[in-house]
Design brief:
By secondary structure, the chain is of the alpha+beta class. It is built from 8 helices and 11 strands. It has 2 domains: 120 residues, Beta Polymerase, domain 2, CATH 3.30.460.40; 69 residues, no CATH class. 36% of the residues lie in helices and 18% in strands. Strand 1 and strand 2 form a beta hairpin. The longest helix has 19 residues. The protein is globular and about 55 Å long.
Length: 228
């Protein structure tokens, strides 16, 4: 087309740069999900590593102790899904010596308002050093009943299954009565527990008695002899 006798070049659209999402951006389907700093890649393994390190420290120092809590359940064949902390039982009279051992290893030790435990942090995980379970002092007999078991390849004393279940169900009260958390633990170790001993020790308390009755109705344990 001409204007005033002069040739003009045909009109061209301005070039539009093609939009591409940056690699790894939120719209890239191949990009991995961003890591959340508040969630470890494997929280259970982190708790196990903390338990192994604390257990090794206590063994080298010669302190009588026993692993407790969810890591003890794992050592006895229970679930590896650990989402809380590592727990160790020590004698009340050894609390200061254990605290000194942990501090010498470079671990900070905290004294919470509760007067039955100490707290430390190892491998970024919370560790409780307990000298009373369900308001009952840790005793020498309790620690001597512990089973020496591998905890992710590290041998250490682990609270006996009967003592472990006793500590869990004796903690039930009107303010805390989470049967659902303890039920899978009881299932996992039921063949290793002296249930008659547990009934004699705490079966007259309302909450433990209710839990034991639940286990009977679910056929986890046999009814008490002489009962329907």
């Amino acid at each position: 087309m001409t204007h005033n006798g002069e040739d003009t070049a045909p009109l061209r659209r301005p070039e539009v740069t093609e939009l591409r999402l940056a690699a790894g951006g939120p719209g890239d389907p191949a990009a991995p999900a961003p890591a959340r700093p508040d969630l470890p890649q494997d929280r259970s393994q982190a708790i196990l590593e903390a338990a192994k390190q604390i257990g090794a420290l206590l063994k080298r120092a010669g302190h009588p102790f026993a692993l407790a809590g969810s890591v003890a359940v794992y050592a006895h064949g229970g679930s590896r899904y650990l989402q809380h902390d590592a727990d160790f039982c020590v004698l009340p009279d050894d609390a200061d010596a254990v605290s000194a051992t942990l501090r010498e290893a470079g671990l900070g030790v905290r004294t919470p308002p509760e007067d039955w435990l100490l707290k430390t942090t190892c491998q970024g995980q919370n560790v409780d050093i307990i000298f009373a379970l369900a308001h009952q002092r840790v005793t020498k007999d309790m620690l001597e009943r512990a089973h020496v078991l591998p905890v992710d390849s590290v041998l250490m004393p682990v609270l006996a299954p009967t003592d472990l279940i006793h500590s869990l169900i004796s903690a039930f009260s009107e303010h805390y009565c989470d049967f659902g958390a303890v039920l899978p633990v009881a299932r996992a170790v039921r063949e290793k527990v002296d249930w008659d001993e547990l009934r004699a020790a705490c079966g007259d308390q309302p909450m433990p008695a209710a839990f034991l009755f639940l286990l009977e109705r679910l056929n986890v344990i046999d009814p008490q002899e002489g009962q329907p």
